[in-house]
Write the structure tokens for this entry.
Amino acid sequence: MSNPETDDSRSWPECRIQALPYQEDPGRRFARIAGENGAVLLDSGRPIARRGRFDLFSAWPQIILEPAPGESGSSFFQRLRQALDQLGPARLPDGLDLPFAGGLIGLLGYEFGQRLETLPNRAVRDLDTPPARFGLYAWALISDHQRRTSQLLFHPGLPDTERDRLIGLFSAPAGADPQDDFHLLAPFASDLTTDTYRQAIERIQAYIQAGDCYQVNYAQRFRAPCQGAPWPAYRQLRQACPTPFAGYLALERGAVLSLSPERFVQVQQRQVETRPIKGTRPRHADPAIDAALAEELRSSAKDRAENLMIVDLLRNDLGRSCQTGSIRVPELFALESYPNVHHLVSSITGTLAQGKDALDLLASSFPGGSITGAPKIRAMQIIDELEPTGRSIYCGSLLYLDVRGTLDSSIAIRTLLIQDGQVSCWGGGGIVMDSDWQAEYQETITKVHVLLQALERTQQR
């Protein structure tokens, strides 16, 4: 991976650009390739969601990388670096500001953390998903919603014949939208009884009282049988709950569908940012009640304390890869509102230390502290003890890392896995000493209710 500190980027070969008519919603164009090998969309939720600036998507990666059985996280990350070196450095044309110049796009599953730290592995892995999976992509279609442009970007290593094929594919008139052929065969059901959930919360609070930990994120899984292609399901979910860190990633026997509102870590020119979410209230149709719920969250001492606890954890995580003294908290307890919930969000920033890169940052901070607890390792041990099944993609990350070292990543909450005729979706929340188990149980449902409801409308009766 090229290092801007030591390489003269002016000497790097230049990416080629092909302008296309601007489209705010990437779905019509992505639909042409949604079923192809390695199809991946990182989606800012426009035109309804307003925070994200870019969408990007691609397909047909040059190679796909997954960890070998027993391979350590550091060894796998080194193979990712080698793949980026294989593609080679590249720069954008002067005056062009785009997030991606060719490189890796893919996922880290929550259990990839067990390859970065010494952790137990007792939860049943009943979903056949890789702990990590990345494609190496030499092209992308990127829309910039600030400048209202859409363009194909081609890494200089992409053959001319492939470049011409892609220009032809995306310049052709759009056909009719494919007919929705996805539906549930039954409503969603939780894997946990309310009594099992209550017992787990009581166990967590006993650990907290004993001084083992301060907070643990505990989740339950909802599942339903389904039939049909996953892309139409994503389109329905996106319409119901547009978010700035959404994404779709095709797998061999299904797909990951993520409607996440949360950034994990971003690296731009060695500047780092993470934006943890901690604190939730439901939305309400009555504007006065909705505003009261938002103000209740903003002024909640409990939610602010939980948020601050995670901010401190992430300051420590970032400090392992950032320059001493560079960590800042420019935003604390900001209110962000989405179609189904209000959230408290903070921002932590830093500067990568000399000799560190974006993969070092991931290795020192994955999985995100906002969805584990504090202290992180002990919280993850308790999660493994009390959650009966592995989390798979839930609380992992969708991300890209390009040949310049630019990284952006989500925390894969509000995320579903469609595989082998089944949809899985998870809802969780941070448990502290004064948590009420019934309120926490309801919060896990509130967070994903709009997603489950959107897909349950497809059920054929």
About this structure: The mean pLDDT is 93. The longest strand covers residues 215-227.
